Amino acid sequence: MTKETIEQVQLQFKQALAQASDRLSMEEVKNAFLGRKGKVAGLFSLMGEIPPEARKEAGRLLNNLKNELQALFDEKNQSFSGAKANEQWVDYTMPGYSLPNGTRHPLTQAVDDMLSIFKRLGFDIAYGPEVETDWFNFESLNFPPNHPARDMQDTFYTEGGGVLRTHTSPVQTRYMSKHEPPVRIVAPGRVFRNEAISARSYCLFHQIEGLYIDKDITFADLKGTIELFCRMYYGKDVKIKFRTSYFPFTEPSAEIDVSCFLCGGKGCRVCKNTGWLEIMGCGMVDPNVLKAVNYDPEKYTGYAFGLGVERMVMMRLGINDIRLLFENDVEFLKQF
Amino acid sequence: MIVSIDWLKDYVELDMPLEELADKLTVAGLECVIKEVGKSIPEGVVVGKVIERKDHPNADSLSVCKVDIGAPEVLNIVCGALNVDADQFVPVATVGTQLTPDFKIKKAKLRGEPSMGMICAEDELGLGNDHSGIIVLEGEHKLGTPFSEYFKSSKILDVDITANRPDAMSHWGVAREIAAIYGKEFKKIPVELKETGPSVNELVKIEIAAPEACPRYTARVVQDVKIGPSPEWLVQRLEALGLRSINNVVDASNYVLMETGHPLHAFDFDKLKGAQVNVRYAAKGEKLITIDHKERELSEDMLLICDGEEAIALAGIMGGTESEVSDETVNVLIESAYFEPAVIRKGSKQQQLPTDASKRFERGTDPNETLVYAQDRLAALILELAGGTLAKGMIDVYPEPIAKNTAKLRVDNVKRITGVDISKEKCIETLEALEFNVLEDNDNVLTVEIPSFRPDVDREIDLVEEVLRVDHLDKIPSMSRMTISVAEEYDKFHPFLSDIRSFFVGLGMHEAVNNSLVNEEMGNKNIWGYQPLKILNPLSNEMNHLRADMIQPLLTSLRANALKKRTNIRLFELANVIEKNDYSDTKAVEHYNLGVLCSAPVFGLNWTGEDKAADLFYMKGILDRLLSKLNFNYKLKENTNRDEFEVLYDVVVRKSVVGKIGQYKADYFEKLQLQYPAVVMELQVAKLFNWYNPKKQYQPVPQFPSMFRDMSLVVDKKCKSATILNEINQSGGKYLVDLVLYDVYIDDEKLGKDKKALSLRLEFRSEEMTLKDKLVDDVMNKLFERLKNQYGAQLR
Question: What pTM did the predictor assign?
Answer without folding.
Answer: 0.81
